[in-house]
């Protein structure tokens, strides 16, 4: 009789990291088709994964970055402990995930042996896997953790699902055939210049393409959109959609999605939307969407310190990626489509 374990996956990192974990989750379901697969993530990330049909249950947990609020966290940990999991695997590899793994108390607790974090973090696990020895795509790095269990993914392409109940509302927000451009990123150094976006829009609109722009709700991101309005006053701008579930439903309708290396790029790719990724400070080999429907464009070599969010170089790498190259990539997609 095939083994049917009850497994808990843990991921306390950011939105893009959660999406890139999905090939490993799918591989566990394929390896243990009769088992249960639960997932523990931060509350704000849960809508990304809630509609995956091969997850038994998604457990959201309240979180403040850099803080663990015991009064909110402990009831979830206690409920998970009562589930009596056979196995757990911590994909985040941070202190919060290690502590949660220990207190939830699965019989087998798998984690990365990275040599970082608080003293004794590695003792929160009873199965350890060394960090992958070479630089590889993040989906492959996360899947490498499962090598201890003899699990190898059949595909490394991420997958998420939008809430089908929101499809009609999304249709009202985004007309069919729209190319969506997201102008912000979590780190300013990953953003293509607004002047380049404006020039790209002029070329795309002149060619009869339907283009719409989006950004995040923060003050800095909104200032980018204000700048775009000044340089390209006719550019259509989608309203800010703070609800992640609705944003995914809208994103799924896009004809093509264009942005720098940011969470929404990974959302779109995992929803099956063709993308054009604009890469500079981050490595395409590690972070770019996988699959033939995606195109990757890079600027000049990046001289930024990997720990800074802002580019201090006199020659920002993404400035060297001209609007004409991005428009040419869009034309290539439209011809193939």
Provide structural commentary:
This protein is of the alpha/beta class. The chain folds into two domains: 6-149, Glycogen Phosphorylase B (Rossmann fold, 3-Layer(aba) Sandwich); 164-336, Glycogen Phosphorylase B (Rossmann fold). 34% of the residues lie in helices and 16% in strands. It contains twelve helices and eleven strands. The strands form two sheets. Strands 3-2-1-4-5-6 form a six-stranded parallel β-sheet, sandwiched between helices. Strand 4, helix 4 and strand 5 form a beta-alpha-beta unit. Helix 7 crosses helix 12. The longest helix has 14 residues, at 323-336. It is globular. The model has no long low-confidence stretch (mean pLDDT 92).
How many domains? The number is 2
Write down the overall mean pLDDT: 92
Query: Number of DSSP helices?
Result: 12
Distance between the termini: 46 Å
CATH class of the largest domain: Alpha Beta
Radius of gyration: 21 Å
Strand count, sense and barrel status of the largest sheet are: 6 strands, parallel
Overall, the morphology is globular
Poorly predicted regions are none
Give the class from helix and strand content and strand pairing: alpha/beta
Spatial ordering of strands, largest sheet: 3-2-1-4-5-6
Query: Based on DSSP secondary structure assignment, what is the total number of beta strands?
Result: 11
CATH topology tier name of the largest domain: Rossmann fold
CATH superfamily of the largest domain: Glycogen Phosphorylase B
Q: Which series of helices and strands comes N to C?
A: EHHEEHEHEEHHEHEHHEHEHEH
CATH architecture of the largest domain: 3-Layer(aba) Sandwich
Oligomer: single chain
* Strand composition percent: 15-25%
Helix content: 25-40%
């Amino acid at each position: 009789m095939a083994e049917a374990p009850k497994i808990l996956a843990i991921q306390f990192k950011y939105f893009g990291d959660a999406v890139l974990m999905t090939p490993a989750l799918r591989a566990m379901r394929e390896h243990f088709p009769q088992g249960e697969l639960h997932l523990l993530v931060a509350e704000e990330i849960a809508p990304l994964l809630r509609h995956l049909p091969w997850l038994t249950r998604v457990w959201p947990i309240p979180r403040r970055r850099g803080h663990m609020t015991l009064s909110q966290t402990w009831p979830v940990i206690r409920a998970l402990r009562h589930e009596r999991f056979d196995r757990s695997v911590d994909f985040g590899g941070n202190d919060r995930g290690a502590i949660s793994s220990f207190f939830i108390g699965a019989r087998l607790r798998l984690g990365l042996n990275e040599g970082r974090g608080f003293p004794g973090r590695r003792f929160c696990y009873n199965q350890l896997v060394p960090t992958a020895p070479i630089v590889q795509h993040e989906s492959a790095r996360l899947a490498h953790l499962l090598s201890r269990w003899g699990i190898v993914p059949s595909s490394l392409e991420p997958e998420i699902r939008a809430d089908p109940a929101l499809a009609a509302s999304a249709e009202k927000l985004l007309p069919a055939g729209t190319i969506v451009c997201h102008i912000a990123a979590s780190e300013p150094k990953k953003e293509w210049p607004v002047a380049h976006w404006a020039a790209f829009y002029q070329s795309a609109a002149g060619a009869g393409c339907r283009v719409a722009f989006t950004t995040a709700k923060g003050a800095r991101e909104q200032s980018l959109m204000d700048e775009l309005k000044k340089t390209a006053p006719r550019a259509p701008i989608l309203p800010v959609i703070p609800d992640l579930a609705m944003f995914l439903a809208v994103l799924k309708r896009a004809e093509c999605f264009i942005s720098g290396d940011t969470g929404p790029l990974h959302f779109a790719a995992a929803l099956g939307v063709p993308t054009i990724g604009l890469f500079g400070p981050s490595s395409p080999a590690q972070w770019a969407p996988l699959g033939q429907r995606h195109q990757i464009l890079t600027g000049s070599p990046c001289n930024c310190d990997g720990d800074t969010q802002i580019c201090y170089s006199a020659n920002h790498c993404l400035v060297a990626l001209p609007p004409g190259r991005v428009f040419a990539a869009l034309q290539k997609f439209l011809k193939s489509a």
